[in-house]
Write a structure and sequence with these properties.
Length: 326
């Protein structure tokens, strides 16, 4: 390559309704269970990758800080895979930022690695098909495989890549995110799922039950049945957390505020608003509802003690390149 080539991509975060927790193959980063997620319009990572023949090592800056250690290694490993596909040895400069509060503990690796795969492939002059990019992103972080696509997205058991099942325009739902007061530094998903697999007697039960729950979630999405989707996705989240709680020592991501928010969602439901909660590897509560109900749900969560802020998001699009100058 003769001159530096700079490419910017945007990818959106996603929240799983049928959860991924546990790996069948750690080296290949193959999930032990199928998952289905919703891509979120309001949470974005923007990543610029420049191929620079003058560099002798990759440079990685995440949210303005130079990445070191494990964070840097994960990025460089993804870049190495892209370089092998492009038959290139050029070093790359990566700058990525999130427009949502990562300090608040909201997952950023999914959107970050999806944007990195897309921008990196183009910076190396090897545009890859979305399924190929999704497989590259999956090896970095399995939830990232889903952020290449918009709307409702599945990562099937044993699949190399994720695939979209229903696009954003087909079913206007919303997700309301209650960001709760941050507790002690939490365990990463990668470490947490390894610990659950190694020590929780409930882990095999979770892995055995997850495929049927995933099927229920996928069917409800295809039928656009919010009640069914909500019931199955709440159970997926609770079963995943049950497997973590039974680990030794216990992996407790939920806080008292989480439980209060769950209770508030159940109260909304009793009062006639279809709203359903889900939680990931942190205390924040994400609530699925009709787009028209989102403001009311947000108001109900905002008034809870311990809720620091509330974000409302519609369903987001696929990862995309940002034209230079736009
Ligand atoms: C609880 O995709 O972050 O958010 O593959 O080890 O990087 P790695 O794990 P990651 O795990 C996400 C776990 C989850 C549920 C989900 O998104 O499906």
């Amino acid at each position: 390559m003769s001159a530096a080539r700079s490419v910017t991509a945007v990818a959106h975060a996603n929240i799983a309704l049928a959860k991924y927790w546990g790996k069948a193959d750690t080296a290949a980063n193959m999930p032990a269970v199928p998952s289905l997620s919703l891509t979120l319009a309001a949470l974005r990572s923007t990543t610029t990758v420049s191929a620079d023949p003058a560099l002798d090592a990759d440079e990685v800056t995440l949210d303005g800080a130079v990445a070191t250690g494990r964070a840097r290694e994960r990025v460089v490993r993804l870049l190495d895979e892209l370089r092998a596909l492009a038959r290139s040895t050029v070093r790359l400069c990566v700058r990525s930022h999130n427009d949502f509060p990562t300090a608040a503990g909201l997952a950023s690796s999914a959107s970050g690695f999806a944007a990195l795969a897309l921008a990196g492939a183009h910076a190396l002059g090897t545009p890859l098909a979305p399924a190929k990019l999704s497989a590259v992103a999956r090896r970095a972080s399995a939830s990232a495989a889903r952020s290449l696509f918009g709307g409702f997205v599945v990562l099937r058991l044993g699949a190399d890549a994720a695939e979209p099942v229903l696009d954003a325009a087909a079913w206007p739902l919303a997700m309301v995110i209650a960001v709760t007061a941050s507790g002690p530094k939490s365990v990463s998903s990668t470490d947490g799922m390894g610990h659950t697999r190694a020590t929780s007697p409930y882990y095999p039960a979770w892995v055995a039950a997850a495929p049927a729950l995933f099927d229920e979630v996928e069917r409800a999405v295809r039928e656009r049945d919010l009640e069914k989707l909500g019931a199955a996705s709440e159970q997926s989240a609770l079963m995943m957390h049950a497997s973590m709680l039974a680990a030794r020592p216990a992996l407790v991501y939920l806080s008292p505020v989480t439980l209060r928010a769950m209770e508030r969602v159940r109260a909304l439901r009793s009062a006639g608003t279809p709203a359903f909660y889900t939680m990931d590897a942190g205390p924040h509560v994400k609530v699925l509802c009709e787009a028209a109900a989102a403001e009311g749900v947000a108001e109900a969560l905002r008034s809870l003690e311990g809720v620091e802020r509330v974000l409302v998001s519609g369903i987001g699009p696929a990862a995309q390149l940002v034209e230079a100058g736009s």
